[in-house]
Amino acid sequence: MTAISLPRALPAGRTLGAAILAIVAVFALLGPVFVPGDPFAQSLMKSLAGPEPAAPFGYDHLGRSLWHRLAHALRLSPLIALAAVATAGAAGLVLGTLAALRGGWTERALVVLADALLALPGLLLVLIVLAIMPGTATGFWAGLSLVLWVEFFRLTRATARATLASPAAQAGRLLGFGWPYIFRTHLWPEIAPLMLTAAAFGTATAIMGIAALGFVSVGMRAPTPELGLMMVELLPYWREAPMALLTPVLATFALLLGLTLLAGGHRT
């Protein structure tokens, strides 16, 4: 009797994480479509006013719609984080594979560079880049990429060294297969799951870093809607409008929770 193989069900945590991220993405992309409005438009007559059809989440201290500002912020921060993770992942993959293949001084130099960057606080590196390109998305992208590539490099190098020493990879080299074939057949299947997990955690780290720097007023500049900047702007009014302050807080928590659950699902 032939056994029928059924597709494996996704882990519950990973499914929940994907669902949370999907809800956040739908709101960020379609929220302004369902309720048209301008995230920069001000009306001091509506300062800290409650929800209404034109602004379902109410207004901030300058009478700007929290619905539209939050939707804009939930597009900006993840976009910067994903760009930084993609850049860091590509750099780490290339340099880690190069270090494992070449060895010798090439590997030692790359390891020393990675260890030197790892010894410095990540936010300090981002602040140094932001001092050169203050308050710009490009500055965040460059600074976060500089911080995150080290983790991808270390994962790729460790995995590639072990995989290249395996009998299957050694046999492929003896049979005359080129490095593209070795990478595609032996290295990438081993590296890909680790890269996905690192990418999810790296995206969460980047979003948290952007929000943290915005909260201490060294990130994106007003009036740009950004999660950390929204928190610091609304913090003085937490007694008068606690729900207004909770809006960016809960949105940030949802993003980080979804990414953490998704990464945990990949890891298992």
TrEMBL record:
Q: For this UniProt entry, what is the primary localization, expressed as one broad class? A: membrane
Point out the coiled-coil segments of this chain.
none
Please indicate which superkingdom the organism of origin belongs to. Answer: Bacteria
MF terms per GO, please? dipeptide transmembrane transporter activity
Where does this protein reside within or beyond the cell? Cell membrane
ABC transmembrane type-1 domain mapped to chain residues: 74-263
Question: Could you list the residue ranges that cross the membrane?
Answer: 12-35, 79-101, 110-133, 139-156, 194-221, 241-263
Q: Which Pfam families match?
A: BPD_transp_1
Q: Which GO terms describe its biological process?
A: protein transport
Family in the record: Belongs to the binding-protein-dependent transport system permease family.
Task: State what protein this is by name.
Answer: Peptide/nickel transport system permease protein
Q: Which organism is it from?
A: Rhodovulum steppense
